[in-house]
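Backbones bend. We report:
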Amino acid sequence: MSFDAITIAPYMGSDSVEPFLKFEDKWAILLALTSNSGSSDFQLFSNSNQTLFEAVLQKANTWGSPQNLMFVVGATRGEGFKSIRKYAPDNFLLVPGVGAQGGSLSEVCQYGMNKDCGLIVNASRSIIYASNGKDFAEKAREEALKIQREMAEELDKIGF
């Protein structure tokens, strides 16, 4: 494969994920707790012990390791990162939703960072739609730099 990672819906089970985990130096990124409004239809379903997304994290970590398995966790989930880190303490998390979706970078870092940072934070719409005028490039750059500065401040807080 000429790409480094692939995002996979884990709900079909191990046989739909494990083939992707066999590629050396490649990542499988599983949907865990997304920020779209419909995510609560299934991801937050709970039995008496845990939510579905927690069960997915727990089971998926038996298929792969933090060296080849990441999880998507929406930035709008704030304190939900505590639960994520309970089940995936060492995995990297791909975190969309900072910016236009209203996710708090500060909360993501507070609850989601691990000893290695462990976060790949994504902002798209706030940059892409920074302006629809002739100043688009300048405004997009300003927005990207703003988010970069915020992340640098968060990393400084923990000594990175």
Observations:
- The radius of gyration is 17 Å.
- The chain is about 35% helix and 15% strand.
- The longest helix spans residues 136-157.
